[in-house]
Specification:
Distance between the termini: 52 Å
Structural class: alpha/beta
CATH class of the largest domain: Alpha Beta
Number of domains: 2
Number of helices: 10
CATH topology of the largest domain: Rossmann fold
CATH superfamily of the largest domain: Response regulator
Oligomer: single chain
Radius of gyration: 23 Å
Strand content: 5-15%
Shape: rod-shaped
């Protein structure tokens, strides 16, 4: 027996809401409600939790941001319908499953995206999703990730950390003070967003910043 996917719709335009209903109001989907804004849907979202929230993102940008606890608390998966303006794209609060489809997508594509999202997949329309979020979703690196953030000396220290040398040994190898090594190590951890030397090595290796 096919599982029913409960869908809610948020779109400012009444015509868009009607159009989305016409596409999604048949098996395996069931429309539970539609609202013009997320602000007007707070109680519904938390009390009558749909499987997928189909949300139209107009040119004014997102109606929901990544730090909004509402959607995270509801456990709903969010399918954004994207326009051409991607300057404020912000897929969903952290921990919330999300997807995006182009505003020009046909009904079959929209239904397939909603069904895939309800099954736990991330649905990405590369034409409407910025590179930063594509990287976050897929684990791919952006050009900013690949850029070498280190000074020449920091690069030398990073390489020696990767070789397992302690600060004193690095200082001897580079003919600098141990205090200076500690300064460089702190800078390296900060630039990589790493909490430890081990994590720094892992990040640097993934970015191709060191030779192992």
């Amino acid at each position: 027996m096919t599982r029913t996917v409960r869908v809610a719709i948020v779109a400012a335009s009444p015509a868009v809401r009607v159009g989305l209903r016409s596409i999604l109001d048949s098996a395996p989907f069931a429309i539970v409600w539609d609202r013009p804004t997320l602000a007007s849907a707070v109680d519904d979202l938390l009390d009558d939790r749909p499987d997928v929230l189909v949300c139209d993102a107009d040119d004014r940008g997102r109606q929901l941001n990544r730090n909004d606890p509402m959607a995270a608390d509801s456990g709903v998966s969010i399918l954004w319908i994207e326009g051409a303006d991607r300057s404020t794209v912000n897929p969903a609060p952290r921990g919330v499953a999300w997807g995006s489809v182009s505003r020009t997508a046909d009904g079959d594509a929209l239904r397939a995206a909603a069904l895939a999202l309800s099954a736990g997949f991330i649905v990405i329309d590369a034409a409407t999703t910025p590179a930063a979020f594509l990287a976050e979703a897929t684990g791919a690196e952006t050009s900013a990730d690949r850029a070498d953030p280190f000074t020449e000396r920091e690069g030398q220290v990073m390489q020696l950390i990767a070789e397992g040398l302690a600060n004193k040994m690095i200082a001897n190898r580079l003919a600098i003070s141990e205090h200076t090594v500690k300064f460089h190590v702190a800078a390296i951890l900060s630039k990589l967003g790493a909490a430890s030397r081990t994590e720094a090595v892992a990040i640097a290796a993934r970015r191709g910043l060191i030779a192992l």
